[in-house]
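Entry under discussion copied across for reference:
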Amino acid sequence: MTEYEKWLNRQLEDSSLTEELRSIQNQPEEINDRFYQDLAFGTAGLRGVLGAGTNRMNIYTVRKATQGLSNYLNQHKTDHVPTVAIGYDSRINSTLFSEESAAVLAANGIKAYLYPQLMPTPALSFAVRYLHCDAGICVTASHNPAKYNGYKCYGSDGCQITAEMANDVQDEINRLDIFEDVKTMPFEEGKKSGLIEMIGDDVVDAYLDAVESVSVRKPTGPLKVVYTPLNGAGKMCVTRILERIGVSDVTIVPEQSEPDGNFPTCPFPNPEIREALQKGLELCETVQPDLLLATDPDSDRVGIAVNQHGKYQLMTGNEVGVLLLNFIAAAKQEKGEMPENPVAVTTIVSTDMVDPIAADYGIEMRRVLTGFKYIGDQIASLEAEGHPERYLLGFEESYGYLSGGYVRDKDAVDGSMLICEMTQYYKEKGMTLVDAIHALYEKYGYYVNGVVNQAFEGEAGMKQMTAIMENLRQNPPAVIAGHAVVGHSDYKESVRVEKGETSEIHLPKSNVLEYRMDNGCKLIVRPSGTEPKIKIYLSGKGATQQESEALVEKMKQDVPALLGI
């Protein structure tokens, strides 16, 4: 209440925030939700609902976070003027928050490079590396609903920041009064002083050059594509890269073509969700393309639907990741370009199907924690060893792919290019991507994966999530979906127990629990790092697709009992 009164009685620059605060004067629950905590600054930066309060995304919480980052940079980069690259997507207030961030950096004597138009998140990662910046900021809430915005923070390597840096920045933020301790200057004054500089087209061209450089096999025949940027940042870069590789027959979904942070035709602009692709699927019925591509608002993830005998079949992130690994490996072998000791990287929650495929091609398959920064770390380690060419592909089951080391984040521009190349590759063989994945299922087994998202809103929800994870940790299940648990892993404690044998997990600590059953099924429980929900990843492998799907469905039905809800 003290914090609420402080905000209410202050002359705020944004009058809409004052109006919001006045409207909840006699609503203690609403006041509590806005002020019971500060938005936490973690390895993914900030993310929250737009609005007034310390637990909301607004110019004051953004400025405070940027002041904390500025203090950190000025303490750690004493031999030069620190520099920061800034990008943003189509979300509500993204342009405002990016300019406010630049103004705070400039007021602290830090040079800010700002994209003059919305750009994909991977283009921000690229700019950090290309311009040799000390850090990066991308204003985006990725695929969250319209009421959210966020602030991703990147290190000088182009990866999202480390836990150590996030903790240090959070310490700096904690020392600040949100109003009194934040330096800023007028944006135009920062530009005139040279401390704010707009990023030029040369950087965009260099980014697209880098994407094109990892092309595997440019299409040699006509390919028809319907594309939706979901009212986000992908349109310019995706269409330009497709044109570069010779894919010119591209129809853009008109309702979702232009930037619009309200996402009027898809309340959840997430290519994992069928409803987000509905407008694209409707257009496909008319256009009859080979492929539907859908990039999320910040264009780091891409979902697809495939023309299977006139019907459009959605494919999962795991299926596309498996197909891309097989396609890249097969194409490189055919061309005699497979490097020695090739490496591919995926996460602990992604499909096990990649393992036998990688083994067949002699590829070392590395597993990392969820979060593309961990895949980026593997790319960096290969570069440090002097063998960047060993890296073939990194992917997450949540539709994130990257086939080159030019950035350190998943890239839907690269993903869109590769998927089009792969579609044409199989088209020349008389196959669709659906045919191709079924051929791999026949060869390697029917791996079926599923995800259950259990939401927990507000302060009570956060406490419930913590209690659920602690209860599972203290009382691991003996049986899931009627099958005995024969192994469990606790990534927070770095301990794996399998068939009575205990071993150490050599990964950074993370609040993740994994259970393996005696029928070969797997279930993983992980609180989201960016949203108020617990994600449950399910993996089943049976003799047929139907059997595998039934195994996953049975586990889904067991989730409420497992979580105790």
Q: What stands out?
A: The longest helix spans residues 545-563. The chain has a mean pLDDT of 95. The radius of gyration is 24 Å. The chain is about 40% helix and 20% strand.
